[in-house]
Amino acid sequence: xxxxxxxxxxxxxxxxxxxxxxxxxxxxxxxxxxxxxxxxxxxxxxxxxxxxxxxxxxxxxxxxxxxxxxxxxxxxxxxxxxxxxxxxxxxxxxxxxxxxxxxxxxxxxxxxxxxxxxxxxxxxxxxxxxxxxxxxxxxxxxxxxxxxxxxxxxxxxxxxxxxxxxxxxxxxxxxxxxxxxxxxxxxxxxxxxxxxxxxxxxxxxxxxxxxxxxxxxxxxxxxxxxxxxxxxxxxxxxxxxxxxxxxxxxxxxxxxxxxxxxxxxxxxxxxxxxxxxxxxxxxxxxxxxxxxxxxxxxxxx
Length: 301
Prior knowledge:
Elements: E1 4-5, E2 11-15, E3 25-32, E4 44-47, E5 53-60, E6 63-65, E7 76-77, E8 80-83, E9 90-94, E10 99-105, H1 107-114, E11 125-127, H2 128-131, H3 134-145, H4 149-164, H5 172-177, H6 184-191, H7 195-205, H8 210-231, H9 238-244, H10 250-261, H11 265-272, E12 299-300
Antiparallel strand pairs: 1-12, 2-3, 3-10, 4-9, 5-8, 5-10, 6-7, 6-9, 8-11
Helix pairs in contact: 3-4, 6-7, 9-10
């Protein structure tokens, strides 16, 4: 008789929010490594720099921050954690099996929803209960208590809808829809304030300067364009790609990619398909939300 085996492949999925809350949430993300027996570098999680504010629920397990992000190297991440704008790549290591649910908020929407000072969250990971108002703390607890991922999504979206009925998103939404080409002068004009005041406002409500925000958005757009070509099996010309994504040239693209991911475009393309730690770079939006709160039972080999 064969020995029973409970090993399975780690899972990671990306889901779009409902249409009416899409101005607030970029995506929901799931990660489950339970019963996968990951070891060594397989326990790592490599994330690119990002402009988003992320609420991460460690439903099971915990991770350790390896990057010297905001002087927090060695910080143990557990419970419900909020991360602000990350201006550099981040690496963490799971301390055994983990099961997580993440909501990726646009920074201006997160600030409008919870009133957080995003300047204090730049390159930081903090306990949600330490920075959120009562409404946010109640949401954090309710998501933990929910019986499924779909129920968790409903809780987050209902919280947003309740807020959206009473408040309008700030003017940053208009600028966000204009993409990464907006200049400081143009943004100041649209918001009706001076450039210096705009920079202070951006740091508080976006978590970074407008220049850095534009750079991060351009990097995300560049990666998604490259990912689409790769998945379609199309050849890739990095020089042409650089110009299409508003870089001055291929060298500019390479420098920016290395600053945001820690690797050149060619290195990233090589690693993404073979390194478990790069799971976040392989994500595509799933068509249907699938609940898997409980790992499958052990099966005979």
